[in-house]
Amino acid sequence: LRAVVTKVNPGILGKTYLHVRDGSGDATKGDNDLSVTTQEIPKVGDTLIFEGTVGLDRDIGSGYKFPTIIEDAKIVAK
Length: 78
Hints:
It is globular and about 30 Å long. By secondary structure, the chain is mainly beta. β1 and β2 (15-21) form a beta hairpin. The protein is built from no helices and five strands.
């Protein structure tokens, strides 16, 4: 996945949760944002290439549900 980091939330359940945008989806429909978990802490605005496992319909509790998420991602290129 090649995407721009739009939000960084480190230290959640031992991971960093990112919001990224890869150019797909529609901003007016609110479906242009993808969540990624990683051990790394990139900066907002970084364009990165991630490799990870695609998860579908993940519920991590406390009201946090992800229809699609890239889990345990590694940053493989900047």
